[in-house]
Amino acid sequence: MTSPARSSTFYVTALVVLLIAANVGTFLWLVALGMPAASPRTADLIRWGGNYAPFTFNGEAWRLLSSCFVHGGPVHLAANMLMLWGVGRVAGLRYGAVGLALIFLAGGAAASLASAWWASTLAYGGEHRSLTVSVGASGAIMAVCGALVADWLSGLLRREVPAEHAAFHKQLLGAIGVNVVLGFVLSFVDQAAHLGGLAAGLVLGAGMGPWHAQRHGMLRWARLFIAPALLLAGVAWGLDAANTPQMRAKAEAVRGRAAERQALKDEALREEAAAADEKSQAERAEQQIEQEAANEKAAVPPPVSDELARGKVLDVGKGTSAFVLSDDEQRLYLLNHRLNEFKVLELADGAVSMRVSGREGRPLGDCVKTFYCRSHGASAMATLPESGLVLVSSMEPDAVSVIDLKTQRIMKTIKVGRFPRDILVAPDRRHAYVHNVDSQTVSVIDLQTWKVLATVRLQGTESGSASSDPARPLSMWWGPDKRTLIVMGWLQKTYDQIASGALKKLRPLTVEEGNPHRVVPDVDPDGALLALMSEGVALLHPYTMEPLVKRKFCRAPWVRWVTPEYSAFDAVRDAQGRTVVASTGPNEGFVQVARYMHGVTLGTFPLADDSFAWQIKFAKGAERLFVLASNGKLSIFQVNQRMKVDKDADLFCGDPER
């Protein structure tokens, strides 16, 4: 082992540089971790090892030393390191490199103990000051200064102080005096640490003695370690004595508040991270939607000739007002309101394979454009393919007629309310629900006994009431649970609900926004409804009828603008599960098809003889589109064969409103 006696200036200088590097490195490391460099917060200083009495006296004695390497700013650090460089090298030459290290560490611990004891005394001894945090190497440096003073006094007693050291000792005493005076003048200077370190240095210097003066090897090493050991033992006793109930209670309270603050900070960080992740996901989703829309638009087939775009046109007779496509899509079931007639049209050759007529209806001239006649005339229908039956409303006055497709005759007539229109068959195929327009009731028919089981009165029974709208299109559909029937009657912004199992009326739905003109259920995978609104198409919540997504129609400058409530509308999911809508929108004389979510227009299709669409219906998979026009012409369009237009003719404009 190298003897301390042979410690050269090199080793002493290396130790001083190491101490300075440790202090500077600690400061830079803490700044890199987020501690403000110019004015660290108290919480930061406590977190990174500052000398805080309640914690130091309550199980965290390591703060006595860690606080000697933490500083409160660059000026504080620079001043201490400059003084350490000046006195440290001299002390190392007097006590050796090992002695200097022991003085710095043991003296620093004693200075920190004095600081913590004094802070707790002021806080609980009568002045009631708030507890402070002590940081910095000044206490340990004052211990080094105290050891040099002890060496100087010892030399004076032995009359061994060289004359050339007088200037240094004056500077040393001046520096100590300045620090002590500043401690009394400036409130932020830790006077207790300075005085405690100075006293500890005097004790250590006196106990250790100058290294060069020790001639006996064992005595040198004994004196080198005994004094620091005794001092540290005293520090340990002081820590135990200062650990009072007040200190423990204070420590628990501060730790509790710190834990709460940290929990709040962690929660804020989690929320911030979640918000950032949500924003990132939204941006990625938006980019994906834009890319999908671009891909869909690029995949739209090019336009074809006008002749191909017109599709197949069949003359089904003026007065034809409704049709239903058979399950196998080989035939159409048609109703002619003027002739009060039901017929079956074979799509393969366009031939009529069946006709069933009711009694002669009223002339069409007695009916207005948007309503059916109030007396009778085939109005609406529902099919029962498993039994080969079709239910037709108003072929007989205030009744539903049951047509047998095998016998091609009316097998039964069931009296319901005044002017029955829409018919909806329950999913379990046990009951049929008939909306009676004039009486504003719903009749429930048992499909086994063909008897009316119940009649449910709807809201807004009086068509002339202030809140009723006779021009409002009427319709019915099943809720997502397939057990609740929702009826859109005359009362504005109100939807009646009927429980199918209990056959009783539930509380009506009332909405604040919008009044749909057409509603298509069972299209959205999540159960939402697609509805034709005054300015576009909306995706509605199935239970509250509130809009979830809205897309506005474009107004094409090259056609006549019409009111959307007169527009036909349908929606379906294509083979890829994407929602496709078809509507005349506000553009009379044309039908447009678009994918709803991305708003990509798939095509524009002309109606025969510039008429308006009475009914629109997609075939399965959205490959074909059937359009019944007001002039009695039925057009069958291939969706992939669109017409060419001179200008952009998109069905929807702008981004969806959510």
- Principal-axis shape equals rod-shaped
Q: Using the coordinates above, name the CATH class of the domain at 4-243.
A: Mainly Alpha
**What CATH architecture of the domain at 4-243 do you see?**
Up-down Bundle
**What is the assigned CATH homologous superfamily of the domain at 4-243?**
Rhomboid-like
Helical segment tally?
11
Helicity level: 25-40%
SS-based class = alpha+beta
CA radius of gyration: 47 Å
Mean pLDDT: 83
Question: Which percent range describes the beta-strand content?
Answer: 25-35%
CATH topology of the domain at 4-243: Rhomboid-like fold
DSSP strand count: 31
- In spatial order, strands of the major sheet run 20-21-22-23-31
User: Mind describing the biggest β-sheet?
Assistant: 5 strands, antiparallel
- First-residue to last-residue Cα separation: 80 Å
